[in-house]
Amino acid sequence: MSALVLVVDDEPPIVDLLTYNLKRADYQVLVARDGEEALAMARREHPDLIILDLMLPRLDGLDVCRAIRREGNIPIIMLTARESEIDRVVGLELGADDYIVKPFSVRELMVRVKNVLRRTGVRASEEAGQVVRAGALNLDLRRREAYWETIVLELTAQEFDLLSALTRHVGQVLSREQLLAQVWGYNYYGDLRVVDAAIKRLRFKLRQVTKQEIVTTVRSVGYKLIA
To answer: Fewer Cβ within 10 Å of end Cβ, the chain: N or C?
Structure first.
């Protein structure tokens, strides 16, 4: 069955454009035109991906993103017309997997949709039976589960892939560009702070369980996992 995408936007031309191109690419599509409808639909239909406009009636996109992240790990691509970078940074820090600014290239958006969905799928042919370990950290790549000793780490798909990349290269510094290539899977032409925001969320979750800092920053270079 094809992936189910929830489009959340109150501009009919944008909704029509996204719906047409997503259906043309064989995705199933649901549409919500305000924040409250989006939350209700996400809870009821459990979509595989949400394309979420930032400026919405009744409940704005940041509040929708915050509520969805409290309740689960549905991937989110933030869609915004705002020029202020603080809005994009806040969206990423709240847990959005990616963002794109209006006006946007449909081709670029479709590539991002494809890659976000690819990251959330189980790569069984490549990862069946594989377990990666680094000290007390254990990653089951087939089941896409992460553990600190016997404690399950509650991670989004993006956070799991980010931790997997770091764990595969434990003790080695990975640059932001390397993490973009390994985790996001395409050439990202926006700023590299998408990596910083994801690392920040991952660190917070790890710190809650491990009570220590196991992902460190190497200034002007990147990040590494210490076992």
So the answer is: N
Q: What is the pLDDT of residues 129-167, one digit of tens each?
A: 478 888 899 998 877 889 998 899 999 888 998 999 899
Angle, helices 193-210/85-94, rounded to nearest 10 degrees = 30
Alpha-carbon distance 131 to 38, whole Å? 37
Given the candidates 1.10.10.10, 2.160.10.10, 3.90.550.10, 3.40.50.2300, the CATH classification of the domain at 4-120 is: 3.40.50.2300
End-to-end CA distance of the chain: 40
Collapsing DSSP to helix, strand or coil, 185 comes out as: coil
3-state class (DSSP) for residue 169: coil
Domains 4-120 and 124-225 share a fold: no
φ and ψ at residue 111, rounded to 5 degrees:
-65, -40
Q: Which class is 124-225 in CATH?
A: mainly alpha
**Among all chains, which residue has been given the structure tokens 């896409």?**
144
Using alpha carbons only, how large is the chain's radius of gyration in Å?
Answer: 18
Q: Who's near 70: CB < 8 A, 6+ residues apart? A: none
Write the pLDDT tens digit of every residue in 98-123.
Answer: 888 888 888 889 988 988 888 766 34
Here the tokens at position 2 are 């094809």
